[in-house]
Amino acid sequence: MSIQKSDRNQHQGQASVEALLVLMILGLLIFGGIELSRGVAIRQALDSGTGAAVRAFSLDPSQWSFATNVIQQSVNQNILGGGPTVSIKVYDAANTLRSSAWLSGSPFGTAFILEASAPFRADIPFLPDSTMTIRVRHWGIVERYP
Amino acid sequence: MRSFPLIASDGRGMIRDRKAQSVVWGFLAMMVFIAVASGLVDVYRLYAARNWVYSVAQEAAMAGASRGRDWSSITGGGDIRLNATTAQDEAQRLIAAEMSARGISQYVIDVRVLPDSTGGSIAGFPPRPVRLGTGMGNWSSNEPAVGVYLEVPVSWVMLDMLNSQAKTVRVFASAGVAQ
Predict the structure, then answer these.
(1) Which of B20, B149, B170, B178 could disulfide-link to B110, CB 3.0 to 4.6 Å?
(2) By the CB < 8 Å criterion, does B91 face chain A?
(3) How far is B54 from chain A (nearest CA, A)?
(4) Within an 8 Å CB–CB cutoff, is residue B92 touching chain A?
């Protein structure tokens, strides 16, 4: 009788260990999937906002703060919520970093690249925190005249 | 002394000891979970790549239409037209710059221009069916326009392991100049 009970306890212990192992990996996959979705949602919002900001810059290249707000609001309203702070940079057609003043003073027909970036940290259990930067780039052409 | 045989029978031909079964099931379940997660990553990767290629094609078409405008046709008293060579070069230059920035060298590009003020049509373009394509294979426009067709390969995570062929994203975008 006592041998049977000990045997059953052994099985229960083994099942618990196996369940724990499975749960650890399952948790990793589930939280990884959620974090991946969050990253994709932020990237999608950043991409969409940057596209709108480029059009705003095309029509009025001096609207730096307006364009930044457009992107920030787009990221803040991503479907999974919790938008990080975005920052923007502008490059010329030769991929040289330029200032907002350069863009503001650019004449009709000037090509520019708007790069928006946002930090993203994936919180996945059992894995070290990894912070990365999500970047998107969009091309635009100044359409303001003169 | 009690013996612990690895496999015990209940006397009716059935295996009674199931010690290793949960390990096998657990392993199989893990493989399925990992395959599902990898598949999810692949779907997201394809989705992101497709969006990116679309935006590159759209911006290239816009660049071609914007910088390829032939102002002399307006100053000469006519309607707006496109300079076909300039429009094509501008669109191709933008695509080359974006592909270079991403380190992509294996891509197919086809840029066509309808320079006349009334547009026109090009049979057999875009060369392959694309999403949102109306009248696929016969692009037409009623204004001067630039059409950009792009094919970009996308690498897989899960399907690469299975030696599957690389997926190719095919997109078409056009931009015109309103009179």
Answers:
(1) B149
(2) no
(3) 11
(4) no
Q: Which residues of A touch B49 (CB under 8 A)?
A: none
Chain position carrying tokens 């006592």: A2
How far off is chain B from A80, nearest CA to CA, in Å? 15
pTM (two decimals): 0.79
Where do the domains of chain B lie?
A: 21-176
- Tell me the pLDDT tens digit for each residue of B79-93: 899 999 999 999 999
Residues of chain B contacting A14 with CB distance shorter than 8 Å: 19, 22
- 3-state SS, one letter per residue, for chain A: CHHHHHHHHHHHHHHHHHHHHHHHHHHHHHHHHHHHHHHHHHHHHHHHHHHHHHHHHHHCCCCHHHHHHHHHHHHHCCCCCCCCCCEEEEEECCCCEECHHHHHCCCCCCEEEEEEEEEEEECCCCCCCEEEEEEEEEEEECCCCC
B33 pLDDT band (50/70/90 cuts)? confident
- Selected for mutation to probe chain B from A25, A89, A139 (highest B CB count within 10 Å) is A139
Contact at 8 Å (CB) between B41 and A40? no
Q: Given CB atoms, is B29 within the 8 Å cutoff of chain A?
A: yes
Cβ pair B63:A141 closer than 8 A: yes
What are the backbone angles phi and psi of residue B125, rounded to the nearest 5°?
A: -135, 130
Comparing CB atoms, the residue among A3, A11, A25 nearest residue B33 is: A25
**What is the total count of domains within chain A?**
1
Residue B41: partners with Cβ closer than 8 Å, 6 or more residues away: A36, B157, B158
Q: Which residue in B22, B36, B38, B54 has the most chain A C-beta atoms within 10 A of its own C-beta, making it the best mutation to test that interface? A: B22
Q: Is residue A146 part of a domain?
A: no
Per-residue confidence (pLDDT) for residue A111, from 0 to 100: 93
Asked whether residue A96 is domain-assigned, the answer is: yes
User: Domain residues for A21?
Assistant: 2-141
Whole-number Cα distances in Å, B151 to A14, B163, B168:
53, 21, 6
